[in-house]
Fold each of these.
Amino acid sequence: MDLDAVLDFRTPYFIGLRTDDALYRFFGRNHFGRRVGVTVHDFAAHADAKSAEPAWRDWLTRLYG
């Protein structure tokens, strides 16, 4: 997955990325023995959460599988 994004917020357990039409938030709960959390706020006119969800799930599974 390739994104042209700006890092707009960061802590040891949180990363926030911003693009022209979306916000991506990664919650590093794995440090506490939990799953990594991700939220995507896609404001693009063509945004389709149902089709994007499997791609994000696959990417995270490959990354943290």
Amino acid sequence: MWVEIICGLVFYRLFRRFFYGSDDVLEFETSDFDAIFSVANRLEKLYGGKVYVGLHIPDVNTGSRQNIDIVLVTKREAAVISVQNLAGFISINEDGSWTCEGGSSQSAVCNPDPVSEAKNQASVLESYIEQRGVAIPEGYFSYKVVIPNPKFRTFYNNFPSEVITYDQWVQLKPEPRSMLSGWIKNAFRGGKKEMQESFHQQLNFILSTAPMWDRFVTKCANDFAFNFIRIGS
């Protein structure tokens, strides 16, 4: 089973590299699934560390599970990334929700506040990690909303600082200080190296064994689908 999963992931990466090139900035509309993997690949290239995709974390407050698109773990911080693959003109309402007009749908579509959702996901993930015996340093987890769709448009530039619009996304450079410099805060300032390494080992172990989406479906150009099932999720 695991051999099939690994082979499928390797084939998928080779497929994307062959047809779309090595740059993970989208130049065309794609599926939500492909957009998440594209963002994950680019974040890993830009900031190093480890990227975890498709976590399915239990929420003790609601008794349900939170789907988390991406978790990026660097030596200085970890971040929950929500990928909003939105096309059309986007405006923000007074309650924080987003209205999308002119996309694939003929009518306006209202989406719940993705910033609040990402914040809640980060809180749920922190609680889950602490329940598994690892104390999180204050300010270690942050959250961002990334919009990688090239057909994203906005009426006003009034998006919260946690939102990375498409224009900002394509300008990010693989440098320690860039548009995300305020995001990388170094929660371990003044800490011992041994303690940092031990913490990161524990954190990466927890994230690597955390529940994932029950099924990944990657639809290729030839209409073949690869289904990846995580046992025990």
